[in-house]
Amino acid sequence: MMITKFWKILPIMVVSLLPVFPCAHAAEEFEYGLRPASPVFDPAGLLKPEAVKEISGPLESIAKSEDIDILVVVLADLDQAPPELVAGRFAKAWCVSPLHCVVLDVPGHADSPWIVPGGKLIAYLNPEQVRDAVANACRRAASEPKEEDKVKAATREAADMLRFWMANAKNYRAMIQAESAKIRVELHDQSGKWRLAVMMAAALLVTLFIGFTMLARLTGRRAPRAFPFHNWQTRLGAPHAGGNHAVADLGPPLP
User: Fold this and answer.
1) Per the structure, how many domains does the chain have?
2) What CATH number is attached to the domain comprising 123?
């Protein structure tokens, strides 16, 4: 009996565990493993510990208070891989916030650092404005003379940029909610007016019907009544009356 129940439950257990294996397999595929506790990932120790602490402190507070995830990745080399692709792989593996950003830095590279934003909210923004904002932020960060200052400037630029986008998204949602509420109120008022108009029209029709009915009854009582036409025929009373409308002529009376 127990074996039979086990074979019935086994397919359900296998199906329920199927989604778990791809997720675990995908996490194992990322060569850098799980995300560290610090928002600054510097596996080669290219930044000084003081700089790492100074950068990670504000980023941690922003992530807790505003749900904006900024990850700083410092690598020695990209192996000729596109910076946006490398930053996107880190964001896909480690970032879960609806609005996040990866600041990728390769010390000594002429174009470093790179600011690569992502998340679901990015899809609601203007792509041209996003590209212009990112290009300006990267240019301002790259103008710093020291490598650590470049990374600090890039994180500040990314934080300000994502805060601005988050505020716009919240304001946009608030505006949409306000307009939706206004439209619902207007539709409710219009439906109320329509209901009142229908009720008044129905009451008017009932009043007119009752009035016409009473008027017809009053005018019908005052009109003269006409009797139906009847074909009168001369007939005698008994015992001279015959059947089938027969009439007997007895002539003039005797003297």
Assistant:
1) 1
2) 3.10.310.50
- Average pLDDT score over the chain: 77
Cα dihedral across residues 124, 129, 135, 139: positive or negative = negative
Bridge partners, 72 (sequence order): 40, 103
Nearest-Å Rg of the Cα atoms of the chain is 48
With beta carbons less than 8 A apart as the criterion, state whether 77 and 109 touch: no
Is the pLDDT confidence value at 85 over 50?
yes
Alpha helices, H only, 67-126:
83-94
What domain range includes position 113? 26-174
pLDDT in tens, 4-58: 544 444 444 444 444 444 444 444 578 888 998 999 999 988 989 999 999 999 9
pLDDT value of position 19:
44
What is the rounded (10 degree) CA torsion for 163, 168, 169, 175? 150
